[in-house]
Amino acid sequence: MNSNIERFEKMWDGITPNGVNRTKAQKFRQYILEHVRQTGRPMNKENALKYWTGQLQKEIKESEML
Fold it and tell me: How much is the pTM?
């Protein structure tokens, strides 16, 4: 789980073996934040990380069961 968070942080910041790639960071952020937007949650880094780890989907399922 920790490596998944580390991978998210690197992709969010656009860190590659060759340095920092801002274009990749922007594409990744747009991709993840679009998925977060579709859930109706605020589009921020915290919710993006929850989406990436699957925690946001679990929260949505739990709220639908109530």
Answer: 0.86
